[in-house]
Amino acid sequence: MALIEAPPVDMILFFQKVRKAQQAWAQELSIPLSDEQKKQVLSLLSKKEHVWSHELFPFDPTKLRIYGEEILELLQSMLDRDGTSTENQETLFSLGQLLQGDGADEFYRLLAEGDFEALEKKGSALSIDQPLLHYLIRAMLKPYLLASAKALGDIFSTQEWNEPICPHCGSEPSMGRLSTEEHGKRYLFCSTCETEWPFRRVVCPFCANEDQYTLPIYYVEEERHYRIEGCDQCKRYLKTVDERHYPKKESLDLYEEDVATVQLDLVAREKGLTQK
């Protein structure tokens, strides 16, 4: 099975570089919405449905190839710094075949069409680990998702949304935030498109459990700004940053916090909780 093994610090640096590239690519994209499309978006939101679709926000396979090849280059650069193991060399070779080989054009076409079942088959044929393949797919699509989220923000305020899924792409939240306003107003954050929206405080966003006695909260006293919000019913958890205790001077970046708080994931697993 093709995997990537690298020191945690190097992996975090890699994720940061990929995100910086994604943000730059997103700024280059223009996603204008016609009046009819805007009506379609608002109609979906009024029915509590997320708005993103391949029809409304189509992808360009040519641009996806540019993104894929540069992400692969960043990955190669990270692994070259500390020397590449045999396992990593095999993984890089498989990824090169997928993203730059003879069948790459078909891969990017399938990616643009959203045929994820076919993409998984291609990854499996090259023995690429599924979580790694899923990360690469999300990483290549993210510039479009960031750009389309911005287009959505121009016509709809996420403050009007109070559902457990992202109003833009429909993903589950990856992080939470308790703000300094209104005694810790709760917000959910989607790392897929980096959209944030308000949500009820004492309720599990994954199974709608409202029994406060089965919604445990875990934190370390020395780091009260980080907490794990668990659910005894569905056994899921959400990492959350409490801004009321946030010690850093720079502005809060929930995507960065998600990457940097791997220790919270380990604690959650020890408690028998999972993200999915």
TrEMBL record:
<dbReference type="GO" id="GO:0008199">
    <property type="term" value="F:ferric iron binding"/>
</dbReference>
<dbReference type="Pfam" id="PF24860">
    <property type="entry name" value="FdhE_C"/>
</dbReference>
<dbReference type="InterPro" id="IPR006452">
    <property type="entry name" value="Formate_DH_accessory"/>
</dbReference>
<dbReference type="InterPro" id="IPR024064">
    <property type="entry name" value="FdhE-like_sf"/>
</dbReference>
<dbReference type="GO" id="GO:0051604">
    <property type="term" value="P:protein maturation"/>
</dbReference>
<dbReference type="Pfam" id="PF24859">
    <property type="entry name" value="FdhE_central"/>
</dbReference>
<feature type="domain" description="FdhE central">
    <location>
        <begin position="165"/>
        <end position="201"/>
    </location>
</feature>
<dbReference type="InterPro" id="IPR056797">
    <property type="entry name" value="FdhE_central"/>
</dbReference>
<keyword id="KW-0963">Cytoplasm</keyword>
<feature type="domain" description="FdhE C-terminal">
    <location>
        <begin position="222"/>
        <end position="274"/>
    </location>
</feature>
<dbReference type="InterPro" id="IPR056796">
    <property type="entry name" value="FdhE_C"/>
</dbReference>
<dbReference type="GO" id="GO:0005829">
    <property type="term" value="C:cytosol"/>
</dbReference>
<protein>
    <submittedName>
        <fullName>Formate dehydrogenase accessory protein FdhE</fullName>
    </submittedName>
</protein>
